[in-house]
């Protein structure tokens, strides 16, 4: 598997989950860097703890998304459905709610991440582009 979008959903679950976990960890590191720069923790140890916690949280969200999407596609036997991405995004949102210990945060994150992921899948299916020259 050369890319995340290559091949039907529900196959190569381990590779897809590993990819989304790495992307989540990278996003977590970038977010932690901004958080450390803007909020200035009191010590280097506090900065390291912040970076580790943020990176692990985002890597976990990526892993949950990858597994949720892949398992949903396997169970439903519908490999190119935006609903699979909604399920993966919603599962990640539930993890956010558990981390925040808040039902409201979990519900909001579930809906927000689920709809965003489904929209991303629809955009990929339809061939929408965000950059580059327009197709005429």
From TrEMBL:
Q: Where in the cell is it found?
A: Mitochondrion inner membrane
Q: What is its main location?
A: mitochondrion
Q: Does the keyword Zinc apply?
A: no
GO cellular component: a single term? respiratory chain complex I
Q: Which domain of life is it from?
A: Eukaryota
The family note in this entry says: Belongs to the complex I NDUFA11 subunit family.
Protein name according to UniProt: NADH dehydrogenase [ubiquinone] 1 alpha subcomplex subunit 11
The species this protein belongs to is Pipra filicauda
Write the gene name.
NDUFA11
């Amino acid at each position: 598997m050369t890319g995340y979008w290559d091949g039907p959903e529900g196959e190569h679950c381990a590779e897809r989950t590993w990819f989304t976990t790495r992307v989540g960890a990278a996003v977590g590191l970038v977010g932690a860097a901004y958080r450390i720069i803007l909020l200035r923790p009191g010590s280097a140890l506090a900065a390291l703890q912040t970076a580790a916690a943020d990176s692990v949280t985002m890597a976990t969200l990526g892993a949950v998304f990858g597994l949720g999407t892949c398992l949903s596609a396997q169970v439903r036997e519908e490999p190119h459905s935006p609903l699979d991405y909604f399920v993966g995004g919603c599962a990640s949102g539930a993890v956010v709610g558990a981390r925040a210990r808040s039902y409201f945060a979990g519900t909001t994150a579930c809906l927000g991440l689920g709809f965003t992921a489904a929209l991303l899948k629809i955009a990929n299916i339809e061939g929408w582009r965000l950059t580059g020259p327009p197709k005429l």
